[in-house]
Amino acid sequence: MKTSRATLQRTDRIKEIIEKYRGEPGALIPVLQEVQEAFGYLSRDSMGQVAEGLGLPRAQVFGVASFYAQFYLKPRGQNMIRVCLGTACHVRGAEKVLAALGEALGIGPGEVTADGKFTLERVACLGTCGLAPAVMVNEEIHGRMDAQRAEELLHSLRN
Ligand code: FES
Fold this sequence. Notes:
7 helices, binds FE2/S2 (inorganic) cluster, about 160 residues, Glutaredoxin, alpha+beta, about 10% strand, 4-stranded mixed β-sheet
């Protein structure tokens, strides 16, 4: 079987990351963080290589990666849109904001648009309850959202 150049590059990069942490206790999480930073998400192959490199059971690596919300097991869009559905946002209509964004993007929570530009996610609380309903786009918070403002926000992100 032929191994692609991209696969070789990935393999080398992961080896480098593992080497940096070799022998350190509790290396798994920082290694997974760096692998995700390098490739945007943790593929099954990447996690398998991490398991092998650190001498850990695959099930342990997959278990940790799927337990923590910070890890992504699927490719992500260039823009991450997080809609808060915590209590404060929920009572102020966050579901409508999520529905408007989902409809405009043509995807549901946890999915990526076909052009790879957007990921839509639901989160429990963004820590800005005074601005409810709140949406976070990449690192920026947008408060007091409603369906119309959500569509305007998408429009500005697309242009
Ligand atoms: S509940 Fe939405 S920001 Fe806290």
